[in-house]
């Protein structure tokens, strides 16, 4: 049987019960949208998004030269901490549910504050 009208054109996990005669379908979550970055301080950014599936868990990744920083949430925001000053990251959000994973969100660019130096000494930190 074909199923029409599924959101996001995602693969589904369909289980037909011979006992009840019903088809149970779990739809993979949609890609998180409207990613917003709200820097809290020099080493922390709050990431929020539109959560399209209440049953999903969300993983946020900030990928930069120093590696990957992550946070997780069952809601629509989480905080990434431990970010060094003067770094640039590509931040994405991924939704996961019992039916599978969404596509990764489009990335948003995050640039943490920069240190001001004079003759090799830090004179101010804009972090």
TrEMBL record:
SMART domains: FN3 (SM00060). It holds the Pfam family fn3. It comes from the Eukaryota. Transmembrane segments: none annotated. Residues 31-115 form the Fibronectin type-III domain. This is Fibronectin type-III domain-containing protein.
């Amino acid at each position: 049987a074909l199923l029409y009208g599924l959101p996001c054109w995602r693969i589904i996990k369909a289980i037909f019960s011979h006992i009840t005669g019903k088809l149970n379908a779990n739809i993979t979550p949609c890609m998180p949208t409207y990613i917003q970055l709200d820097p809290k301080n020099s080493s922390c950014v709050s990431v929020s998004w539109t959560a399209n599936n209440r049953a999903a868990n969300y993983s946020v990744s900030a990928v930069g030269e120093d590696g990957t920083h992550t946070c997780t949430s069952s809601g629509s925001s989480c905080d990434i901490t431990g970010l060094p000053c003067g770094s640039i990251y590509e931040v994405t959000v991924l939704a996961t549910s019992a039916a599978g994973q969404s596509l990764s969100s489009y990335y948003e660019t995050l640039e943490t504050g920069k240190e001001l130096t004079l003759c090799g000494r830090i004179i101010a930190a804009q972090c």
